[in-house]
Description:
The protein has 291 residues and is an all-alpha fold. It contains 13 helices and no strands. The chain is globular and about 65 Å long.
Amino acid sequence: MYRLIQHTNKEEFKTNLFYWLCTGFVYSMLFWTLLNSMLAILIVAFWLFFLKKEFHLSSDRSKLMLLFISLYVIGLIGLIYTGNMTQGKAILQKQSALLFFPLVFGSSTVLSFQLLKKLISHYLIATGLACIAGLGIGMYNYIITGNIAAVTGRGLLVFHAFNPMMMGLYCLLALSFLITYENFSHNKFNKWLIALSFILSLFIFLLSIRIIIFCWLLLVLYFLWKIVKKNIYKIFLTIGLIFSLVLSGLFLPALKKQWKELADFSMENNIVLDKDSSLERSWGGKALRVA
């Protein structure tokens, strides 16, 4: 009996420690990149040496684990074709989370559904705080400089080493969690969830990344069409969302520039491939992709 109690306490301690390591990782991912790297190493080491592991090919968890690991395998295969092996290995090292984190979360017996829900809640809080901090920094810089660009794009990032695309993906992921949250999925509209959805959506628009805003539109349309029953309301909501997209393109300078570049098919916006076209010119994404 004593051994059973001792074993139970030991397993509970491991579960709690794993939970706090993961919670710290979630918050540091958005606020303290050095601590985030250290916690990532600690989580993998803790899983490797102290946690029980299981793998059943028939389980959904194991299938998802293999699916995510396959993204890393694609990178390994890419080494065969790379002309710069040193750079290829460096990229794989940066992408090692695609290998280790699916292994950790896909095989750990301590990761229960309840624990995962708690971590998702912390992720929503962390993303919301990062957005509020970014909006505060942007507004402060706007008041000082009077430049509207201070509240768009990189001007909103807590860490300027962050990529606006990555921050946009964080917000999209948080929004998708919110949409599948219990209150929303059962049409119980908690005011805090609505407020967080608005903050995340506002931040996504102010980041001014075309593909992120397009994904936001698809996500919100899916959610609204799922919960709204009458077709006439669905049509009006769709028109309203598209109208808000058009307005953002008119009033947000960075987004306005991107939409203008996307619609510009003139020869001045085409890169001539047999000469150096980069001199005194910053090419947009569409021109580079076409080239």
